[in-house]
Amino acid sequence: MRAASLVLVIIARSLSAGYPIIVCLFSVKTFGKRDLSPHNRDIEERDGPQREEAADRETEMGRFATRAHICTALALSIIFLPTAVAAEDFYRGKQIRLISGSDAGGGYDAYARLLARHWPEFIPGQPSIIVQNMPGASSMKAMNEVANNAPKDGTVVAGVQNNIAFEPLLNISGSRENAKFDPLALNWIGAATKDVSIAAIWHTSSIHTVQDAMKRSVNTGASGPATSTSITARIMNSVLGTKFNVINGYKSQNAINLAIERGEVEGTIGVQYATIATTNPNWLSEKQIRIIVQVAQEKHPDLPDVPLLRDLVTTPEARQEVDLAFASLSMGRPFLAPGGLPADRVKILRDSFIAAFDSPALRADAKKVKLEVIPMRGEDVNKLLAEQYKTPKPIVDKVRAMLAGGKS
Fold first, then answer.
1. Does residue 168 register a pLDDT over 70?
2. What CATH architecture does domain 197-295 belong to?
């Protein structure tokens, strides 16, 4: 390669990337391997002035080669300079629109606004963030917006309900035809927490373990057949043989909790542990409930001795059913960006997302508003979705029927 060509490469690369131009000036000569040509071999055979002149020429050639190698190194350092520098500069002075796929004031929206308050500090360039509520069809509207209309430059992200990622596969809402997105083609930035559901039984009941619930009928409360407190009980009855008899019709989880305290029902199946810890902390501190099982991929840090539902099932098929049905719990309060973003910006968003949720300031803020924080990396969200979307069709069909309230 000629020196002139090298200089042109440096200039072209610098201009296209927006970096300062560094040009090495030296004579335009061909350089390469130093060989043992007859010219080089006969230097030592010469006498007097001829030997000195030849040696001077050899020294100059060596200096030229040294300069050439230095310029080569500089050129390569420019050519392969990480593009993260450009990505960091990209966010300076910009504004990120954070779409919240739920109504203002709800739990999902609370996490979006918590993140918006702290995230800019950890994004290079410190862009401002505004939250835009876009409720509709369990975050379907927000997902379609991000997948199809949002600019693919990292200036739009969204916080959505975790079930919506499985809508194309499981038709949870019953309107799968409206899902105009491919979850596997989107860039998941991370999840704010990992939801853990529990089977909570009142302390006066004779039910102490899951095995006890397999021996007799146990009345539990739920708002309706499509809610988690009904679905979880149905799935446990199917995969474990428990005998939970779900009483539907309660207006809210608070109404279910009051019914438990009055003795109308013996417990609630599928309520989130964080909900109980927030709304009824005395149930835990005074041991007024027995938590006989937890539903998640991993145990909650507060419940090391409570068995996981997935560990209680006895067949590989049943475990697949449980993992698919409750996979969304692992990615509680997820955030995503459109597909097609530059890889360096995806990395910046993911790394800064985790840094924000790991920060003492955000954690203290979350504690004040009673939001549990157990963050999950975006790469792990993508991996979880990819694994679950590979579930064999017979398992998918069975889980879909259970979620819809049908018989397996």
1. yes
2. 3-Layer(aba) Sandwich (3.40)
d(CA 157, CA 146): 7
Strand ordering across the sheet containing 376-377: 128-133, 95-100, 156-159, 332-337, 187-193, 376-377
Token pair, residue 302, equals 């507060």
Q: Which residue's entry shows tokens 């505004």?
A: 130
Looking up tokens 């369990």 gives 138
Segments making up each domain of the chain, as ranges? 3-81, 90-191+332-368+376-387, 197-295
Going by pLDDT thresholds of 50, 70 and 90, the confidence category of residue 389 is very high
**Confidence (pTM):** 0.75
CB 222 within 8 A of CB 187: no
First to last CA, the chain: 70
265-282 burial: b if 16+ Cβ within 10 Å, else e: bbbbbbbbbbbbbeebee
Q: Please enumerate in sequence order all residues whose Cβ is within 8 A of that of 343, keeping only pairs 6 or more positions apart, or say none.
A: none
How many helices (H) and strands (E) the chain has is answered by 17, 11
Token representation of residue 265:
């029902």
Encoded amino acid at 11, one letter: I
Rg of the chain in Å (alpha carbons): 31
Burial label, 394 (beta-carbon count in 10 A; 0-12, 13-18, 19+): exposed
Residue 345 structure tokens: 């910006």
Q: Are 386 and 184 in contact, with CB atoms under 8 Å apart? A: yes
What is the 8-class DSSP label of residue 263? T
- Please give the C-alpha separations between residue 193 and each of 48, 162, 396, in angstroms, as whole numbers: 83, 11, 25
- Of 143, 144, 214, 176, nearest to 404 (Cα)? 176
Owner of token pair 């040009």: 23
Domain 90-191+332-368+376-387 listed as CATH 3.50.50.60: no
Overall average pLDDT of the 167-187 stretch: 86
* Tokens found for residue 272: 């989130």
